[in-house]
Amino acid sequence: MKTIVLLYGGRSGEHEVSLVSAASILSHLDLSAYRPILVGITKKGKWVLQEEVPIPPETGSMSGLPLAEKGRKVYVLPGAGFAVESPSGSVESLPCDLVFPVLHGTFGEDGTIQGLLECAGIPYVGAGVLGSAIGMDKQVTKELLKGAGIPVVDSILIHAADWANPGFFPSLARKIEARFGWPCFVKPACSGSSVGTSKVSDSQTLESALFKAFLYDEKVLVEEFVFAREIECAVLGNDKPKAFAPGEVIPSHEFYDYDAKYSDPKGASFKVPAPLLAEQNEAVLACAIKAYKTLCLSGMARVDFFLDKKTGDIAVNEVNTIPGFTSISMYPMLCKDGGLPYPELIDSLIDLAFERFERRSELRFSYDS
User: Fold this and answer.
1) Cβ pair 302, 330 in contact under 8 A
2) Do domains 2-124 and 155-224 have the same CATH topology?
3) What is the pTM of this model?
4) Does domain 135-152+227-359 have CATH number 3.30.470.20?
5) pLDDT tens digits, 34-72
6) Which of 258, 262, 292, 342 is flagged as catalytic?
7) CA within 13 Å, CB half, 52
8) Catalytic residue flag (residue 40)
9) CATH class of the region 2-124
């Protein structure tokens, strides 16, 4: 039986989302094959062993796993794996065959946790350090995709230092009007679940939207508004990834914001699979695979597209390397529709993690003449 450490919570604006995803994963984990150990990461970054967490039922509940902030501290030791405080105050080994990081957003989906686990020599589910870091940064993602000939949504990059220029806002408003006009979207470059994102209808609301976005990152994107359908595609695999038939998100809110995704049960409806023309479906699948490979991803990712309602053109909106795993999340729904039920999806992700770890273990990390 393999021991799986489930990491959840985290220092992120998506902390609460992680609790719900973790509950859903735990409820679908095959307990005859895996022994789960739960490690909660508080909003302040403290790692705590969760010793009394009941296994949630396999229901459509949006309740999250509880996360006790007081308890035995957990440590990751380079080259030695996990350790935990003993009741006496000393440190003892914590068994771990593999880590499943259910950490959406910063300090979990951005390569930081992945780097720590690489140093500790522990296999983990999902993309590696580079792919995770790239996928988290929307601006870097756009640049790499554009370089590969993959269409993306047009945007303007703004740095926090730009605020110091007294003529910044009038100049930016003119640039937006000349480039793609109003409305537009303002979002942090490194954030997920639409945290810090605003739809801006005119220059008067631009400053407040930028202020909100800069609370979450030092880089902000102003993106063109596209009158489009929102199409999402699940990709699974390492060297030979598979893309599942895409689905469509139809928000009931002004856009698919945080509340629509996680708070309002009627915030959006889903069509799985998406009603697409055959050529549109093929284009999305091919583009998702190409984007996945271009961004050096492995394990899993959800590639989100805009399908222009006027022209029928597709463009990649963003990529999520640790997509939501809640009961209403698109990634597990798309995989299930493609013949891979939730429990088998978890098995596949674990197998892919071990595959990637074993392949990397064959590499040389020292030079011997």
Assistant:
1) yes
2) no
3) 0.92
4) yes
5) 999 999 999 999 999 998 777 776 655 568 899 999 999
6) 262
7) 4
8) no
9) alpha beta
